[in-house]
Amino acid sequence: MSPRNSQFSREAIIEAAFELVRAAGWEGFSVTTVAKAINSSTMPIYSQFTNVRELEDAVCLKAMELLKQRMLEDRSGDRWIDQGISYIRFAQEEKFLFRALWDGRNVELSKEMGKGLNEFISGTLLDYPLFAGLNEMELKMVRLTRMMFAQKLAYWLNVNSNYLMEKGIPDSDDYIRRASRAIYEGFKLQFQLQ
Q1: Domain residues for 178?
Q2: 8-63 tens-digit pLDDT
Q3: Does the chain have fewer CB atoms within 10 Å around its N or its C terminus?
Q4: Rounded to whole angstroms, how far apart are CA atoms 63 and 66?
């Protein structure tokens, strides 16, 4: 017996749902709108996914993969700075996907994705020169502080793309670079004083 609606693959359904969320957020997403996007009834969707939550989670995982790709982009020649810039640009350029990642729709998945993103970032910074010589706790403090800064800034720029301009800061990339260095230098000085 062949699977029902095999012409509509799981990947095609996820891609359609992803593009709907990317364009209009969760408000633009429903099983009906996904079915319309793939030019079918809802039956193929329910044959590939046990419930709507499973499809929503697949959209979030796809958004996370896009975020990770973006975080590998070379923007300044400094990996750690580039990651901060890329994260914040993702929040600005992919407003609905950024919100979908962290909106608490599935708290357990958000925790899992956050942990996975942290591990991904850590893996890309294993040989980062500025972190050489920092012990595990020092490294954790520097990275956690910059992560909290980037997350909050990303949130504000996602909601209001002119947020920094309104505060008199015209160049967000430079601001991220300077703030990241200030976090690093400030902690480094404290570590030396201990």
Answers
A1: 65-193
A2: 899 999 999 999 999 999 999 999 999 999 999 999 999 999 999 999 999 999 99
A3: N
A4: 5
